[in-house]
Amino acid sequence: MGTFKFRDVDALSKRNYGTFICLMHALNLTYKIVWKESYGYFNKTTKKWNGVVQDLITGYSNLSGTPLLMNNDRLPYVDFLSDITQKLDINFILKRPPVSEVRDIFDIAFHKHVWYSLFPTFLLLTAGVAFVLFIETRYFGGPNRAPGDAFLILLEAVCQQGTLTLVVTAGGAILFFVVFMIFMLFYTAYAANIVGLLQSTRTVDDLETFLQSSFQAGAEDTHYMYFYMKEARGAIRKEIYRTKIGDKGFYPMKEGLERVMKGGFAFNILSTPAWFYLTKYYDESDVCSLQTLRGDYIPSQLGYVPIPKGLVHKEILKIASIRVAEYGLHYRNYIRYILRPKCTSIPPSFKGIEITDVKRPFLIIVGGVVLSISIISLEILYNKVKNRLRLRKNAFI
Hints:
The protein is of the alpha+beta class. It contains 16 helices and ten strands. The chain has four domains: 11-87 and 302-335, Periplasmic binding protein-like II (D-Maltodextrin-Binding Protein, domain 2, 3-Layer(aba) Sandwich); 90-97 and 201-299, 3-Layer(aba) Sandwich (D-Maltodextrin-Binding Protein, domain 2); 105-198, Helix Hairpins (Orthogonal Bundle), CATH 1.10.287; 362-397. A hairpin with a 4-residue loop joins strand 1 and strand 2. The longest helix is centred in the last third of the chain and has 38 residues, at 359-396. It is elongated and about 110 Å long.
């Protein structure tokens, strides 16, 4: 327990073992360690407790070396000491996803203020081109233009396709040059940002973003994880459990972390054994590509040391635990088990472009084809009806 070997095995108990020993020495107590198979849960069928809580209720044990989570079921049967444990650090561990998996890269390539400025710029230039075409047609003998020609010319400039429209005045040529130059700069900046975003990663900052992403999720196969994941509070947490985890989404630590390293998977686990396993079997660059996301399935994430209800030595234990906390001994034991590497920079991520990354352009293409077919079908129908009415009118005459 105190040799720091196999930190990934029963890490919760080992992390608190040093603090427990300090407490025993502070009170000059002799102790005997008893191992139990469960933290202690109430069986609704047998109406009995098991594990650590059962030993405390029956008086077989006087103090738990392993911190437990405080809940309404346990409060009537055991008391808790709160000063000799640290936060449990149970979080989702996941690989930082590409930006395209959590945001629409075709929207964030420009800041919203740039998008807002593009629309009035487009309308202003359209009005300018329409005015030039009108002047050339009326005063300089230019060819007749349809009202929508100016709009089509601006679309050609936006898409950098060039135009077959000819101008006959120097002022019109200058305006066309300015229009195509402006949108060439926008087009170049936009394309460069898209390429950069396709090869960038982004940290998932909140559960709502995680829920809307394509990530799958799982949780460590432990007693407390089963209990608290199924009793999740909050609509988002319940939806994550229902859609991404479910009753079959609990895995052993090794299997869950291997899924994390493959990408597209988040694993809810106690951080201490997870980082120990990852730093032992994976390179630093691989580990530094990971992030944590607080799931808060366990309220406050604080562990408390349980003692029997009505224990006569409760005040003595309470004072001793406060002294251990004041000396910082519990924090010293806590940081000795936290092995996450300090990453000076996030390693670059390169991947091929997938169909999901370019979903927006494909939708635009499909939508455009459907819209054009629909419009031409209506035009054909309109012409047929128009010709039929004309034939009827001629036959009547």
